[in-house]
Amino acid sequence: MEGRLICRHDYIRLYAVKFAACKMLMLMHELCMRTSPNEVYHFNCFQCSMCDEQLSVGAEYARDPSTNAPICRKYCVPRSSSTCIDGNGGGTISESVTPSTAHLPHQSYNSGKRGRTTLSAKQHARFEQVFETNPRPNTKV
Predict the structure, then answer these.
(1) Residue 141 — pLDDT band, cuts 50, 70, 90?
(2) What are the pLDDT digits (tens) for 93-116?
(3) Is 132 helix (H, G, I), strand (E, B) or coil?
(4) What is the pTM of this model?
(5) Residue from 68, 96, 70 nearest 83 by CA
(6) What confidence tier does 82 reach under pLDDT thresholds 50, 70, 90?
(7) How far apart are CA 62 and CA 41, in angstroms?
(8) Is the CB of residue 58 less than 8 Å from the CB of residue 65?
(9) Domain coordinates of the chain in residue numbers?
(10) Contact call for residues 92 and 84 (beta carbons, < 8 A)
(11) Could you give the C-alpha distances from 51 to 40, 44, 56, 69, 123, in angstroms and in order?
(12) Does residue 125 have a pLDDT over 80?
């Protein structure tokens, strides 16, 4: 395919991103939830496959291994046993379901804030010593 020109219809058919739940094509103006590099959901389609409760940004969820559909936390047993129960309250769906976190596609993981810098007493003394000699030291202190 490289180096060839293709029409818009074929480009969309071959390369366009499709939503994981509804399989519709993603348009440029649509807001979405990206759960992995290859999975994108409409905000409204990102819901538990057991109870149809909408999952919000940052909500913990697990995956049903047979359908790969999201399952909300209330249908999962605590992480130590790592099993999910079906909607009727009995039986296991999977022995290996692990929770993950949903996020927006271009959302920064640290939301623009740096972590707080902490210095040991020795580092602090050295820092003050350097600033006494030069109030604008270089980064190789």
Answers:
(1) low
(2) 333 333 333 333 444 445 567 777
(3) helix
(4) 0.43
(5) 96
(6) very low
(7) 15
(8) no
(9) 18-108
(10) yes
(11) 20, 14, 14, 12, 54
(12) yes
Topology adopted by domain 18-108: Cysteine Rich Protein (2.10.110)
- For residue 86, what pLDDT is reported? 40
* Exposure of 126 in the CB half-sphere (CA atoms within 13 A): 7
In 4-116, which ranges are E strands?
32-36, 39-42, 60-63, 70-72, 84-85, 92-94, 100-101
Q: Which residues pair with 70 in a beta bridge?
A: 63
Beta strands 60-63 and 70-72: pairing type?
A: antiparallel
Q: Which long-range contacts (CB under 8 A, 24 or more apart) does 104-107 make?
A: 104/31, 104/32, 104/33, 104/34, 104/57, 105/32, 105/33, 105/34, 105/40, 107/57
- Give the separation between CA 77 and CA 6, rounded to whole angstroms: 49
Total length of the chain: 141
Q: What DSSP state is assigned to residue 65?
A: T
